Amino acid sequence: YEEIGKLMLDLYDSGKIKKLIIEHGTGEVLPYNASVYLHYACYVEEKQDPFDSSMFRSLTPKHYQMGGGYLFTGFEIALSSMKENEVAQFLIHADYAFGKLGCPPRIPGNVPIMLVLYVTGFIDCGFVTLQNRDNQLEQYTFSEKLKIARSHSALAVDYYKHGRIKMAFHHFREAQYSIDEEADQKNEEQERQAFLLKSFVNQMMCLSHPKYLKPKKIIETGNRAAKEVPELLQTNAKYHYCLGIAHTHLQEFSAAAESFRKAQMLSPFLPRLSQAVKSLHEKAGKALKQEKVMWQGAFNRLGYSSLTDKVEAESEITLQTRNYVKEVLTRCLKKENFSCLNLGSGFSKSERRILKDEAEKLGLKYEQYVQNFKLCVEISKK
Description:
The protein is an alpha+beta fold and 382 residues long. It is built from 13 helices and 12 strands. It has 3 domains: 124 residues, Chitinase A, domain 3 (Roll), CATH 3.10.50; 126 residues, Serine Threonine Protein Phosphatase 5, Tetratricopeptide repeat, CATH 1.25.40.10; 68 residues, Ribosomal Protein S8, Chain: A, domain 1. Strands 1, 2, 4, 5, 6, 8 and 9 form a 7-stranded antiparallel sheet that branches. A 3-stranded antiparallel sheet has the order 10-12-11. It has a two-stranded antiparallel sheet with strand order 3-7. α9 packs parallel to α11 and α12 crosses α13. The longest helix is centred in the C-terminal third of the chain and has 29 residues. The termini are far apart. Pfam families: FKBP_C. It comes from Panstrongylus megistus.
């Protein structure tokens, strides 16, 4: 390492950390408290293989928060001198590595470390750190608040890409909180509303993710967004898509279908939209079957051997049956999204008469139709 060290530039503490750039990076030096993605390899002298490398565990770059205390001192100092896409080699004295004791058996005591670093990307978290320390947004200008919001948003996007949905939601929400107050200037207010729209919709996308699905929170977030940026939301396909996901899981199928219809009109090729519509049809069909089973059970519990039992006399249909039909239809009417109840076939003439009477009393429309040579019943709003 002594010969290699002669080719390097002194970086810190009179040459106790030396640096040789193998491939120059782009942009500025990594900012303090940046969230960095990198590959690394650590060597000791006279060993061809590294004693530690990010490649040992995965080909995906490792993620580190600068200043987080996860790296040994020399590693942190070396990293703070780099730029994005830079590849560099560092010779680090034992005082800034593993000291006199080392880390036996892989790292002897009092030996220098050769560190090779490749920075693949980073996110500037400086403004997020500033907010966490001060926690008083009112003292900042709109421009500074927007920078804090963008830092949160950049972190959130990164977390989302790596499957950490809960953390992504947290930072999208913090981005929204950072610019909750209205701006003084008209152009600033327009910029604020455009950013708020993205923050709200991204929160809803996180809440729609299978790993973090929360239908009621989607509706709540959508309602808050509708108060803040109502005009911008109506033309956002992802907003309607997320509402459709929420309504589907809450079994509000008519509302879900309407939300998906709006999303399709705005963006027909939105990812996962066709799959969501297919899922809606499957769940709605399953719910309809369960509704039919409920009606079958209602009549069977009242003493009929089957729904095909041909009971012709009204006197044989008890008052209990009529009350049950009335109760079920009244419950349907109370549902906001109720429009139609398809009861299928299998009812006797007397059962159909009760259904028709009770439907008309409640102002509902009773219809009969033939399907597959069977007489079917449907009750709907007029």
